[in-house]
């Protein structure tokens, strides 16, 4: 196995990738502004001996040093924020590509989201712009688009039901996937080498949010009135159409929503 740099190694997906690389005893380095990110989305706690180097994608600080001797880069850093007048993902990807052009890296693997090419949402448009930058570069690449992670949807439903009365957009469609399944596919792509294409990957089932909420309430033993939110606006209409899903690209080895709830809440 060659040397790997995990950019964004302290996030949800990044922490899972780091854990897998540690388990596989791979030669890797985790790069991020902070070594450990403890928040509501975290899925894996990194040990204090995780090989880590500080990099700042907003400025490019630390990238040149982190890329020394690296063959493969996971670009997993993402945020729905702006740096000046540009989206973070665009600035971060441009800075990374500039550094890669001065390195010996042979494969860039970028994590994106299913639906960024059709859904009119600022964060998704930024992800699509980052994809285009990668596709237009001279860096050998593979882009993996995944659907939403279980723990993110778990968090979102909990927020929607945090008041005495829940307000749920029942008609929206989601295809939840386990973060470990996405991690396994990313690790496979390291071994497969550059594909020069975009790959979609979704969970084993497509649900409507109303059904997911009912299952969540049952698993959490929550009982309260729930009022449906009407489907209004271009974003919600796209989600109701299932533009954020890929039914023909199901990861059958991923836990479905019911299995995730049983594993998480018993």
Automatic annotation (TrEMBL):
Which SUPFAM superfamilies does the record match to this protein?
NAD(P)-binding Rossmann-fold domains
Q: Which domain of life is it from?
A: Bacteria
Q: Which residues form the NAD(P)-binding domain?
A: 8-151
Please name the source species: Spirosoma terrae
Organism lineage: Bacteria, Pseudomonadati, Bacteroidota, Cytophagia, Cytophagales
Q: Name one GO molecular function term.
A: protein-containing complex binding
Fetch the InterPro entries from UniProt.
Answer: ComplexI_NDUFA9_subunit, NAD(P)-bd_dom, NAD(P)-bd_dom_sf
Q: Which PANTHER family match?
A: NADH DEHYDROGENASE [UBIQUINONE] 1 ALPHA SUBCOMPLEX SUBUNIT 9, MITOCHONDRIAL (PTHR12126:SF11), NADH-UBIQUINONE OXIDOREDUCTASE 39 KDA SUBUNIT-RELATED (PTHR12126)
* Protein name (record): NAD(P)H-binding protein
């Amino acid at each position: 196995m060659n040397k790997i740099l995990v950019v964004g190694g302290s996030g949800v997906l990044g922490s899972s990738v780091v854990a897998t690389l540690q388990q596989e005893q791979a030669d890797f380095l985790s790069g991020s502004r902070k070594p450990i990110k403890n928040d509501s989305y975290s899925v894996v706690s990194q040990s204090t001996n995780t090989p880590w180097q500080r990099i700042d994608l907003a400025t490019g600080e630390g990238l040149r040093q982190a890329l020394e001797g690296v063959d493969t880069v996971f670009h997993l850093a993402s945020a729905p924020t702006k740096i000046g007048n540009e989206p973070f993902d665009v600035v971060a990807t441009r800075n990374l590509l500039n550094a890669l052009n001065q390195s010996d890296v042979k494969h860039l693997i970028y994590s994106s989201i299913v639906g960024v090419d059709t859904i009119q949402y600022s964060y998704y448009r930024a992800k699509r712009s980052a994809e285009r930058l990668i596709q237009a570069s001279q860096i050998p690449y593979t882009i993996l688009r995944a659907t939403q992670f279980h723990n993110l949807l778990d968090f979102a439903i909990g927020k929607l039901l945090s008041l005495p009365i829940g307000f749920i957009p029942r008609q929206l469609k989601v295809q939840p996937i386990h973060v470990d399944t996405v991690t396994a596919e990313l690790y496979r792509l390291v071994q497969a080498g550059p594909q020069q294409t975009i790959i979609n990957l979704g969970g084993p089932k497509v649900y409507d949010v109303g059904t997911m909420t009912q299952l969540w309430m049952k698993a959490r033993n929550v009982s309260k009135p729930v009022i449906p939110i009407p489907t209004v606006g271009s974003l919600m209409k796209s989600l109701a159409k299932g533009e954020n899903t890929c039914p023909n690209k199901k990861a059958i080895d991923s836990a479905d929503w019911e299995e995730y709830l049983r594993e998480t809440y018993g």
